[in-house]
Amino acid sequence: MAILPKIKRNDTVRILRGKDAGKRGKVLAVLPLEGRLVVEGIAMVKKHVKPRQGGQKGQRVTIAAPIPVANVQIICTQCKKGTRIGITRENGVRQRVCKQCKSVIE
């Protein structure tokens, strides 16, 4: 089942749970079918890569692993605080709104 998160790519989020709790990062990818996000610099894991061509060597690459949407909170662009998101409609256009300062989140 797809979870339609109110968080989008390039939003700044704060991590609420896990080993990176309290850190902030930019959302690189949203995976709605899994209900997860990939956040820059958060939940870094090492992936072993096999050599693909004759001259390459195998190596370990550090990548960001997806984390659950429920473990992050969006940072408002105006008040710079972690907040929940509300939805308003103006002229048929759906807009995300900060619950604390009531400003539109771009």
Automatic annotation (TrEMBL):
One GO BP: translation
Keywords tagged on the record: Ribonucleoprotein, Ribosomal protein, RNA-binding, rRNA-binding
Annotated GO CC locations: ribonucleoprotein complex; ribosome
Domain of life from the UniProt record: Bacteria
Molecular function via GO: rRNA binding; structural constituent of ribosome
Gene3D superfamilies for the chain: 2.30.30.30
SMART domains in UniProt: KOW
A Pfam family reported for this protein in Swiss-Prot or TrEMBL: ribosomal_L24
KOW domain boundaries: 6-33
Subunit structure: Part of the 50S ribosomal subunit.
Family as reported in the entry's similarity comment: Belongs to the universal ribosomal protein uL24 family.
HAMAP family in UniProt: Ribosomal_uL24_B (MF_01326_B)
Role summary: One of two assembly initiator proteins, it binds directly to the 5'-end of the 23S rRNA, where it nucleates assembly of the 50S subunit.
Name of the molecule in the record: Large ribosomal subunit protein uL24
Organism in which the protein naturally occurs: Candidatus Andersenbacteria bacterium RIFCSPHIGHO2_12_FULL_45_11
Source organism phylogeny: Bacteria, Candidatus Anderseniibacteriota
